[in-house]
Design the sequence.
């Protein structure tokens, strides 16, 4: 019995050693793909904030302003799916020095503007109708999925090119990919935070009030290739 166990142990060691000898040579490299895109739409978050001493009056005033804002948005011919109420609140506030309660009502609307040529007209009209807080303006691309696909392909091409550069001095060739890991982070465009310091003139003049620039859509991969 002991002899049989000894033979099995020797066979196991031999098999393990053989497997180690037959390891496939590989190279692991990373690649990044980046696509620069000019945004074609904006996600805008705005709020009507009303304060006062009577909860009912504060809520009523806030509702009236929001009603005017929504009517204006409809006049701008935005699709109903492109704007929605995001948040509604009515909160009591206590002034410890004056020992008095007051109330703060807010309603927040999120708008997706798909025609950036209407940006100035929209923002001025919102303020005129009662918006007194611009929370964020995020410039985006409506073709995000398409550009993400392009970035992934560029990342794979860079990874293969990098692997070929490394092994070119070794007299070897890059074979098929064994392992592909996607290291990309979720795309998150950077918001522009806007304080309510807007000067409105009675005379509407044509002017540029924003520079959308470009947004970077990136993909990152790690690829292990067989060496031939």
Sequence:
């Amino acid at each position: 019995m002991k002899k049989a166990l000894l033979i099995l142990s020797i066979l196991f060691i031999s098999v393990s050693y053989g497997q180690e000898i037959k390891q496939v040579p590989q190279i692991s490299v990373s690649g990044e793909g980046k696509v620069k895109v000019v945004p074609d739409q904006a996600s805008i978050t705005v709020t009507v904030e009303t304060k006062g001493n009577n909860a009912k009056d504060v809520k009523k005033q806030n509702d009236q302003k929001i009603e005017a804002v929504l009517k204006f948005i409809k006049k701008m011919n935005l699709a109903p799916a492109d704007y929605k109420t995001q948040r509604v609140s009515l909160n009591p506030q206590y002034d410890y020095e004056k020992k008095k309660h007051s109330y703060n009502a807010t309603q927040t609307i999120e708008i997706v503007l798909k025609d950036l040529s209407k940006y100035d007209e929209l923002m001025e009209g919102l303020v005129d109708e009662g918006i007194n807080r611009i929370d964020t303006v995020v410039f985006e691309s409506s073709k995000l999925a398409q550009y993400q696909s392009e970035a992934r392909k560029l990342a794979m091409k860079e990874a293969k090119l990098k692997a070929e550069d490394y092994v070119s001095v070794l007299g070897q060739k890059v074979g098929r990919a064994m392992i592909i890991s996607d290291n990309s982070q979720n795309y998150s465009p950077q918001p522009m935070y806007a304080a309510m310091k807007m000067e409105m003139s009675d005379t509407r003049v044509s002017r540029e009030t924003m520079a959308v620039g470009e947004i970077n859509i990136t993909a990152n991969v790690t690829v292990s290739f067989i060496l031939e």
About this structure: Residues 139 and 205 are 24 Å apart (CA to CA). The longest helix spans residues 144-167.
